[in-house]
Design a protein that fits this description.
mainly alpha, 2 helices, about 45% helix, about 80 residues
Length: about 80
């Protein structure tokens, strides 16, 4: 019996419509968190709402991406 490999990898538990919704929400959240990260750069590092407290400093895009991938999956918990 041959096995079919799912090209979505970790997202294989989602239906096609849920996967599309996830991508749209992720794109929206990425734009939103990018704006928040960019605006928060005028604050000291200890006061930034999205900045990682440990480790090296992240770029604005990396900070927004990390936050979006942390927050959005909770919308799809069952």
């Amino acid at each position: 019996m041959s096995k079919v490999m799912d090209v979505r990898g970790a997202m294989s538990g989602l239906e096609r419509s849920e996967f599309r919704e996830f991508r749209v929400l992720l794109a929206f959240a990425l734009v939103l968190f990018f704006c928040i990260s960019a605006l928060s750069r005028v604050l000291p590092r200890a006061w930034r709402p999205l900045a990682s407290k440990q480790g090296p400093a992240e770029s604005v895009f990396e900070e927004a991406k990390r936050t979006a991938y942390t927050v959005i999956p909770y919308a799809f918990m069952r």
